[in-house]
Write a structure and sequence with these properties.
The protein is mainly alpha-helical and 219 residues long. Helix content is 80%, strand content 0%.
């Protein structure tokens, strides 16, 4: 393993890391927003909309991200909708993640005791106030383990972005291997940079989960 070669590749991996994180975290933000809205629609059984959300979650949870990206990037231009690889990656990840986040937040909402809803109603809160100030904070707190797991899963799924010519970490590694045949050096750097991206999320998620668990039991 040639350390000089690895050092010379660092700027390329750094740029790829920034691009991967930018697209990945934009996708995560979209996923969380979709998840919050979708879980509320299903939990409160809003007519018609809940069937649309259920169909959406089943569709995106049961099809690979690669197929979804190909549909957005290659099929939509046939009807006049053209997007860049970065936009395709962002929305593909966001729509996939939204389906998983919807189920995660829905389970958090279902775990809230019924008395919480009754207490909020007895205080004269509207449905929107009840959801914003009473239900949502508790649902998010109980959903933290699933939320963190979904975030890590989505960030790892960015590895398929190379199939739509996005210069992410995987694309950079494969490109360098193809040009210079430095397979071991490129793969070691790939592992290191994925750890740089994902390990802090895992550690911070564990700390946040532990803190919320202690607060719940009054420790």
């Amino acid at each position: 393993m040639n350390l000089d070669v690895m050092i010379s590749y660092l700027p390329l991996y750094r740029d790829a890391l920034f691009l991967t994180m930018r697209v990945g975290w934009k996708g995560v933000a979209i996923a969380v927003l979709i998840g919050l809205i979708g879980s509320a629609i299903i939990h409160f059984e809003i007519p018609i909309a809940r069937y649309i959300v259920s169909a959406y979650t089943q569709l995106f949870r049961n099809t690979p991200l690669l197929v979804q990206l190909f549909f957005i990037y290659f099929a939509l231009p046939k009807i006049g909708i053209c997007v860049s690889p970065e936009v395709c990656g962002t929305w593909g990840l966001g729509l996939l993640g939204g389906a998983y986040m919807t189920e995660t937040f829905r389970s958090g909402l279902d775990n809230i005791p019924k008395i919480q809803f009754e207490s909020a109603e007895s205080l004269g809160m509207s449905r929107s106030q009840m959801f914003r100030y009473v239900i949502l904070p508790q649902a998010v707190a109980s959903s933290i383990p699933g939320l963190v797991a979904n975030v890590i899963f989505l960030l790892k799924e960015t590895s398929v972005f190379s199939t739509i010519s996005l210069m992410d970490l995987m694309f950079t590694a494969k490109d360098l291997i193809g040009m210079y045949a430095k397979t071991i050096e490129c793969l070691v750097l790939l592992v290191i940079f994925y750890l740089i991206m994902l390990l802090p999320v895992s550690v911070l998620g564990d700390l946040l989960e532990r803190r919320l668990r202690h607060a719940e039991f009054g420790d």
